[in-house]
Amino acid sequence: MDVVMPVWVQLVFLLCAVCFILALKGLSGPRTARAGNLLGAGAAVVACAVPFFWSELDLDHVALMLVAIAIGTVGGVVGAQKVTMTQMPQMVALFNGVGGGAAALVALLELHHMLEEQSAFPGIDLFNWFVYAATAFTIVVGSVSFAGSIVTFAKLQELMTSRPVTFPGLPFLFGGSFVVAVALSVQLVQSPAMWIGILLALLGLVIGVLLVLPVGGADVPIVISLLNAFTGLTVAAGGYVLNNTVLLVAGTLVGASGTFLTLLMAGAMGRSVANILFGALRGGSTLGAGEASERPVRSAGPEDVAILLGYADRVIIVPGYGLAVAQAQHTLRELVDVLIARGTKVDYAIHPVAGRMPGHMNVLLAEAQVPYERLIEMDEINSEFKQTDVVLVVGANDVVNPAARTTPSAPIYGMPILNADEAQQVVFMKRSMRPGFAGIENELLFDPRTTLLFGDAKDSLGKLLNAVKAL
């Protein structure tokens, strides 16, 4: 039977749960985000340490647990130090997948424990139906999150194509797997058995792979957010099964915030979550990986662009994934500082889905000590483009592509964009004429008001900075 939880353990767990809530609140603002992150991490450490001081728990295999914790700690520290900003989405996907997989494994072990206890008292129902239902949910959804996160990692890391992967019968295979998983979950509630739990885990893995394969291009970060919500829900359900307040509260927070973030990101793209997940089955997904255009464009060197910027009264910077790839945020900040010193008004226009994860540009620019008040969200800055002399687009493409407004057949049609096309002059910094992550041409590149500056963003910005200083 379960060990009764002492009052001091309950109080510590309750305090940790409160810290998680305060941490999430802290993460909602840039000035409190660091403190919120440290508070949440500290509470997690305390919650993990409590069982080792709970004498009545009589833990087995303590040495193995300590070794596992040590390995995880070293892996986390090394990973956090070595992973670059452009690889953050992949790291988030991996961490999220590990969380979902761990929840599924714990649920399987708890199912085995419950079956053993029930066999010792065959005439008494020790566990009600909801406990088994929560266990089935944790196994299935945790497995879905694990498998789906691994596929998102592979797509972002370019270990497989970022384009949607579909094949005849995929909808039927996905739907059939889902129906069978529901049926087996019901059977687990009615007639608990270990083989059902194992089969549910395997089905969850299949569903997770089939869920993410049809997703392509810029939709992948949204799926990461959705899978993060799945992991949170599995942790919450696991907390109910284990009668653990910390898991229940933390999982609910992650599940709720992940769901809310998914809806916000989908709204920022002007599409529904269902369209993002299954749009490729009817040609509506963000496809990714297009061919480089051979149409003529107007290009210039750093000196010419420096003249445009140096004599502009109003400049707006549009950062994108290319800025993160080149690690050019520090050089960009230096350029902006020089322009501001010359009397130019400069702000950064932040699109909600610029980069490869929510807040990617905010974090990238904060790393370069860019004042947060200069980071202006899309809804606030869009009205200012008409009064802007020069828009400098650094490594972005889809978030300023007018096709989102003008081309119904475009995969990004309906996505709110930054109104860069309304400015007097537009300067694009690009490596080549390859399209953005959506895989379609950007007609703004061929506009008479647009000038292209080709090259690596860091190198080009360095030359541009020197040229502006020389004016």
Low-confidence stretches: none
Strand content: 5-15%
Rounded mean pLDDT score: 86
Shape: elongated
Radius of gyration: 25 Å
- Tell me the total number of β-strands: 6
Brief description of this entry?
58% of the residues lie in helices and 7% in strands. The protein has 471 residues and is of the alpha/beta class.
Write a structural description.
By secondary structure, the protein is of the alpha/beta class. The chain is elongated, with a radius of gyration of 25 Å. The longest helix is centred in the N-terminal third of the chain and has 33 residues, at 88-120. It has 17 helices and 6 strands. The chain has 2 domains: 83-282, no CATH class; 302-469, Rossmann fold (3-Layer(aba) Sandwich). The chain has helices spanning 7-26, 33-53, 62-82, 88-120, 129-156, 170-190, 194-212, 220-242, 245-268, 273-278, 302-310, 321-326, 329-341, 360-367, 378-381, 403-406, 457-469, and strands at residues 314-319, 345-350, 375-377, 390-394, 425-430, 450-454.
